Please model this.
Amino acid sequence: MSGKTNSRQKKVTRRDFVKGAVGASAALIAASCAPPATPTEAPPTKAPEVTPGVELPYTVSTEPVTLKADFYLGGYGEDWFRAVGDELNAVHPNITVEWNFDALIDEAMPAKFVAGEPADLIYICKFDLPGAALEGQLLDVTPFLEAPAYGQEDKKVIDTLIPGALDNAYVEGKPYLLPMHNSGYLLWYDEALFEEKGWPIPTTFDEMMDLFKDIRTDGIYPLVHQGIWPFYWLRLGMAAMYDIAGIEHSWDCDDLVPGAWKHEAVRWFCDWTRELLDKDYILPGSPGLDCVPSQMEFIKHNAAFVSCGDWLENEMEGMWPPDFRLRPLTWPHVDGGKGKPNSVVAMWFNWYALASAAEHPNEALEFTRIMYSKKMDAIKAEMNKALCLIKGASEGVKYSDAIQGVADYFAAAPELFCYYFPWWYPPMRKDTEDALTNVFLGEWGFEEFSDAMEQISAKYREDPTYFHRKRERA
Amino acid sequence: MYKRNEWKLAALFLVVPILVYALIVVYPSLRAFYISLFRWRGVSAYKEYVGLWQYEQVFGDPVFWVALRNNFAFMFLGGSGTLILGLFLAIVLSRKVPGSRIYRIIFFLPYPLSLVCIAVLWMFMYNPSYGAINSILNAVGLSSLAHVWLGEKATALPAVIAVMMWGAFGFYMVFFLGGIQRIPQDCYDAAKVDGASEIQLAMHVTLPLLWEYVKTASVFLAIRGLNEFVIVQVMTFGMPAHATEVVSTYLYRQAFWNSKFGLGTAMAVCLFLVTFIFIILSQRLLRREVVEY
Model:
């Protein structure tokens, strides 16, 4: 055996170096290249009711047009959107829609916008559409809002939308962002299980905590949450903080008012979370659970309550046991709280928008007019088990018992509320989630959480690149 | 005349690869550095030049340092664990133990699986309620060792690193086996005549003769650790509270979720530099005389 230095060393190093150099970029590219969802056949809709002589504020082409749609594939699926496309095609046979449904649509948006080739119709989950509006990438949808409503031509579209639907639509005074859904965020339970166990439905916070004690004694965990997505816990926190502090606190948080996160309501929420942990009321493992697995724990009766939006029933379709009677519950009022009892966390999201560089803006507006019609909203309500965005669209709609329960809560609610800051400042959502995770892991108390949230709030308050909205206060 | 033709031939062969390399490696790298000098939302062509401001943000961001620390954990713990496990199994299976062929197949089996499949599979394994790990621990009376593996800060990172090791060690086992099989039997026979034990054979014959393989594997694993993305993204999204965050997942979120493409690119440039420096250092640290046989 003779020893000498291997001259091939440097070649290996260079190749490795190259791999290292492009590794991170490759990860980004790979992650953003998810294939489109497999289309499913949309159910047929009734024949269109074309009203002759209706004057629109835009001119719809009579030439063949193909609208491109980049749509988020989430809990509401794709069938209803396809039904809207069919309706549009029935009214305007020259217009068809080329669909691209994708759960990772947000990741595909930047490249399309930067290349100047966005789809005509855009429906996203997390993408920074307010930022896109600020940079002139979105179409001002005033002509749509001012157009005669489809099927109710005596009214303008804007007058047919439910109150609050356009709360987040405007950027620098112009409407760009339309809500795709009207959702309630509540606690959910199985009525059959409660009857079997003889558990009462709590109407106050104290009753709920007493019930939690009984549930735990029965060997079941009172709560499970979707810990991978801490925002679910924050929505429950929204309900609790509103109940303690009243609506003004949510406005202060949204307006990034200094000291908003030092409010006693925040302390109350942090302390309550700690109490749940100390009393072993939260299903162990919740911090590591994704949406579907955590909701499965609820379905399997390992937890008596889960907090979720009203998409829960649709999202878990096919997994409900036949005897499971899903029912919603609003946050039970805390004695002495400033919030109005039986109020509901209501969310008008995710966002839908039209691109300013759209190839067919007028036809996109027409698609939008048909989508936001009483007729199509009613179809959506039944098809997607969802609440309506158009006034009166739910009349005659046969909801499931679960969604009817939400609709009843909405109808009776003295106040519908939501904290908007995660949508006004999209990155703030993740920052908040990170801070909140420390709370439900039991590692942070009020002081640490509120300090972190004040810092986060200040960061966005002082960042001039964001459009700083303000809540309208009386 | 002959030499001039040779030079021309070499240039002819080199020009295409150099152009391709420049196009797909050099240009994107330089372009990435250029983009990192701008504040850019990534929603339009509009960019605001901010010089090195993004780098100030990166260096002042505690999460970036947590993510980088986690990358080093992947590199040192995951990398060395994979290497040691692969080497150990290669040495054992090269000794013609009964059933070694079957073991080779079994140990190699995870490697061809896609990283996404591996991550999803282990998410089920780690599930605190019905996952195999806690179920086994409970069944054998070790409930106190059961954890919310991916939900607790203390266990999440080791749990994810273990998945990386599980997916990779089979490849390195086969890689080292290939090297061991090239070692002449004479070397072992000579050592045995001198009274070497199995451990001494491994330490003083196999390892030195396998050193180039170990060095190459170390570099591959270091790069893998520094560029870790898929397993973390699928299993934990960097949760809980950044406990499993790595630089690639963090920059991905900054770019695609937070619309901070300039900042995300600055992080990518930093990761590139760290990888580059580490590769240079590792080559120097692992340099030693190679024994040829």
